[in-house]
UniProtKB/TrEMBL annotation:
Annotated family: Belongs to the peptidase A1 family.
Protein name: Peptidase A1 domain-containing protein
GO annotation terms (biological process): proteolysis
Localization in the cell: Secreted
Residues in the signal sequence: none
Entry GO MF terms: aspartic-type endopeptidase activity
Any single Gene Ontology cellular-component annotation: extracellular region
SUPFAM superfamilies: Acid proteases
InterPro entries hit by this protein: Aspartic_peptidase_AS, Pepsin-like_plant, PEPTIDASE_A1, Peptidase_aspartic_dom_sf, Plant_Aspart_Prot_A1, TAXi_C, TAXi_N
Keywords: Aspartyl protease, Glycoprotein, Hydrolase, Protease, Secreted
Pfam families xrefs: TAXi_C (PF14541), TAXi_N (PF14543)
Coiled coil regions in record: none
Amino acid sequence: MGSTAGRDVAFPKTLIGCGHDNAGTFNRNGSGLVGLGRGSASLVTQLGSSIGGKFSYCLVPFGSENRLTSSMNFGQNAVVSGAVSTPLFSHVSQPTFYFLKLEAVTVGKERLAFGGSSVVDGEEGNIIIDSGTTVTLVPSDFFAQLSDAVDSQVVGGEKARDPQDFLSLCYVADYSRLQVPPITFHFQGADVELTRDNAFVQVSDTVTCLAFYGSDDASIYGNVAQQNFLIGYDLQKGTVSFKPTDCARN
């Protein structure tokens, strides 16, 4: 791998899988998957002590001009300064995931206590942060509250149906003119305010939808919400940090 020292660094005996029958969201334009979880085969685990348990990424928004590439850093260069940080938790039943403790979500000036217990199966952490999941998943009852709060404060759009029949709160509107309320995620010790691009996705030329989905299987903080944030993981300290950043320039 290339390094900030200007020379390549070798990591011997690194396991890399090869897929021959790929389906789902995979196609010939995808180069593959970078495993960033806690599993034994992930790249982060295999790099081990050489990166000091530190890595970061900065995801450029969907639809960015000039096919801009998101950036990743490992080791000391992955330390995020001037950021808000929240503890990372792990669950024995789902050992590869990173769990956070979400306390509430504020829409405009309306604060909604998060319906998911801060303790799941006796372990702390009630929402997974995942760079590989697109939209943010929350419990169905909480999603209903969140949708009502957002809908009551949106200006400049008419209710519409998602052409893909997936997202449920959608509007016909000029995306640039759609006025939406600020949405803030209150994690333990860290408030993360989302921009419109973090909370909404344009699903067609005329339709824009809230990038949240009601699910009673798992709560996941998805990658749309993480766009244009420099997000740094420190597995030794057990924290993840968020810093608003123009990832196209990072």
